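Sanity check

After download, print the first record. It should look like this:
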Amino acid sequence: MKHIILPAILLSAPTAALAEAPGDGPSIIVTGTGLSLPPGTPAYGSVVIDRQRLQDSASGRIESVLGDVAGFQQFRRSDSRSANPSAQGATLRALGGNASSRTLLLLDGVPLADPFFGYIPFSALVPDRLSVVRVTRGGGIGAFGAGAVAGTIELASATRDQLPGFAASAFYGSRESTELSASITPDLGSGYVSLSGRWDKGDGFQTTPKAQRVAATVPAAYEGWSTSLRAVAPISATSELQFRATLFQDDRTLRFAGADSMSQGQDASIRYINRGRWQVDALAYIQARNFANMVMSSSTFRKSLDQRNTPSTGLGGKIELRPPVGADHLLRIGVDTRFASGDMFEDAYNANIAANPVAFRRHAGGEQTTTGIFAEDDWTLGNLVLTGGVRADRWSIRDGFYRQVNATTGAATASAFADRADWEVSGRVGALYRASDAIALRGAAYSGFRLPTLNELYRPFVVFPITTQANDALTPEKLKGAEIGIDLTPAPGVTLSATTFYNRLDDAIANVTLTATTRQRRNVQAVVAKGVELTAAAALGDLRLSASYAYSHSSVRAPGAAFDGLTPAQSPRHAASATIAYSPAQGPTLSTTLRYVAKQYEDDLQSDVLPDALTLDAIARLPLGHGVTVVARGENLFDKAVVTRNAGGSMDLGTPRTLWIGISFAR
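Expected structure tokens:
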């Protein structure tokens, strides 16, 4: 359950350990982690979610656990069972709702955002496969810094000592829901291999309020699976190779019969780590993704749009070096690159004709590349740590196009968009001063940028009755921000943290209202967010407490526009989370989590309100011996009606009360 600020976790951060065996020389204990955290990392005020809390999720979904960090939000309040996959972008600090992720999310150093849409495939991220999550709410990061305009979420895979040789679980839940998972982790020489998989399926709940249901309304049924292979092999006493491959598919039905979506992916990466005198972190990855979505008319309930095929590819890598420059300095230098390409194939149907013929066939796509060089140094001066870094990125957007063919007449229209390229320079500086064992002061300033995704540039979409147009002229978003904070340890096992921040996102990409039924993606002058973040945690024997609160006052700067000065869409002013867990070494355990999100607005004109929501989750475990445990889980125990979409009164709801009972085994 432990959910604490970074300074209290640094000393126990997982790293590879060297052991000296008599007469045998040094040997490595392979853990499959990356390089150790630089000493200046706490200056940026990260929050850590540990493995125990990751395993105590009532929903079994990583996006629910991330909600422990107040200020984390997806574009909508739905989780990965009832949201459209393409809307699952992540952001922090109320910088404005966007279906593309403004937060850089990494798994073992690999960016996970979809190459075409920019959304995060949350359903493929199983909490049991992870060791720790570090959330940095400020913008900018060294390697793979492009995209970190609303913070960074770093996920690390579970280490060998955290993985049992064999584990399995089976759950049955409300509305005929089923969840099965298993993993096997044998040692292989001095390394290990871990193979895991999960499958879940459910009839789903009614996302449509009862008063708005029609004959075509159906529950949000879902079925998904993922499997992951990870191997870690030592090369020498200080170096190792890490390999990962993940396959996943997710099928969902949303609102109306026939409104089916599918997302799938095949990802692979290889990583070389050397923890010797010259430390090296070298990484290469490939991603193959696809997405399909059927849109049904809400008046005739016939097909209106078939987004039948959206293949995309992501390629990238990085090399980071840490040369030996003395005990007081930790220097990081390196280069990283990312390439994304994708195509959208869709058919628009005439839903007003009973035969439901195809009216238009459309094809759009393009490519983009970002290559950056970076350098960062942490300088330790007694109780003071100074940190600073700079990076320069060369980006390009090219081969963009949009074609439409009239299915009846064969008449075609086509647009080929101009190639673009430029440089972006960004950086960050920070300071950490440990005034005593109980008090640490920190401050940081940073900048960053995010390219518009191929989806934002070239693909229009419809969520009835609103049509949102693409915009090939979008420019990169650019963030500048600063923050100061204090970390307190007033007693053993007790940590408190407070941060005040100011972030300005220039050229923010927003869905701008043009008419009652039309929006377009446009750059607005800026979104300004300022606020306070509070975090607390306490370990009192077998009882553990944690809490997080974020107050974010954000507004849009758009002189002359109707939404100038208003709160950006999907941006709550208050968010809070609190967890209480009783977890003795032996016997039953219980963890409960209370979350609150204030009201927010669906649109930029603040005409459609999403009311506030207070939810309670819980999970209880009863060990039976021999590795067998009975587990009960409950989501939204208050059965709060959580409004996730409101378009002129047409609403969707989030997960209602959901109960689970299951059994797990680990040896």
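If your output differs, re-run the checksum step. Summary of this record's structure: Residues 204 and 221 are 4 Å apart (CA to CA).
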